[in-house]
Amino acid sequence: MSVTKKIKRITTHTLQAMKQKGEKISMLTAYDYSMARILDEAGIDVLLVGDSAANVMAGYETTVPITLNHMIYHAQSVIRATKRALVVVDLPFGSYQGNSKEALNSAIRIMKEAEAHAVKLEGGEEISESIKRILTAGVPVMGHLGLTPQSIYKFGTYVVRAKEEEEAERLMSDAKHLESLGCFAIVLEKIPAKLAEKVAKSVAIPIIGIGAGGGVDGQVLVSHDMLGINNDFNPRFLRKYANLHAEMTNAIKSYIGDVKSTDFPNESEQY
Ligand code: KIV
């Protein structure tokens, strides 16, 4: 008799229980099947199909150009690969800011066409109506405050946000507001560690940081950055766990050399 152990899926409730127990949440981005499978099998808690796909997968300078159709394509690939992780998908720029009906339609497309588990939206009080409407349809929402890359043309730069008192207060009140609307978690991007810790202590929902220090409930990074596939992005908050750029370059150079020298394929590599 074969005993196959059923893998238990992480849910939004699991994350909330983890916060209560003080267990940190691990989250990374994924955009395609093969990478998502590795990440899921390694035991990551949350996979974010981030709109950073615009940068990492498509080579755009900002996240602004990526479309809802692109996000659905990436999300479908990631969902097919995962058995354990909770899969959260970014609503891209222009798919939820216009009005709440449009926001709901975008979220529904992601849930139905990709079979995702939750959506993420950038912004605070100003997108309340969209968040409320999505939540009313039973779709879990993750918030995103601090540096919100979809607003890059408003900010002008990717520098640390909420260093000044006024913006810090606004961020705190937005976090409490997102919690009161019913968001299940919030990403805080590139803000002072002390402020992020204060927010994490002031709300009951998990706070996942990127460039927000260690006093929060979990961490998220862009997979391609932490694996060292991109070697031209080196912010202070990024820890690189591998140098795949160098490893892949060496492997590809070896292959080219073997092809040119006719070393590949050899007798045992042909039919
Ligand atoms: O799109 C993304 O990768 C993100 C993370 C930076 C949190 O939103």
Give a short synopsis of this structure:
The chain has 271 residues and is an alpha/beta fold. It has 11 helices and 8 strands.
Question: What would you note in describing this structure?
Answer:
Helices cover 42% and strands 13% of the residues. With 271 residues, it is α/β, with parallel strands linked by helices. The protein has two domains: 12-240, Alpha-Beta Barrel (TIM Barrel); 243-271, no CATH class. It has an eight-stranded parallel beta barrel, surrounded by seven helices. Helix 2 crosses helix 4 and helix 8 packs parallel to helix 9. It is globular and about 65 Å long. The two termini are 37 Å apart. The model has no long low-confidence stretch (mean pLDDT 96). 3-methyl-2-oxobutanoic acid (KIV) binds at residues 29, 48, 50-52, 90, 187, 189, 210, 220, 222. The site of 3-methyl-2-oxobutanoic acid (KIV) has 11 residues, from strand 6.
**Which ligands accompany this protein?**
3-methyl-2-oxobutanoic acid
Here the CATH topology of the largest domain equals TIM Barrel
Q: Give the quaternary arrangement of the chains.
A: single chain
Helix content: 40-55%
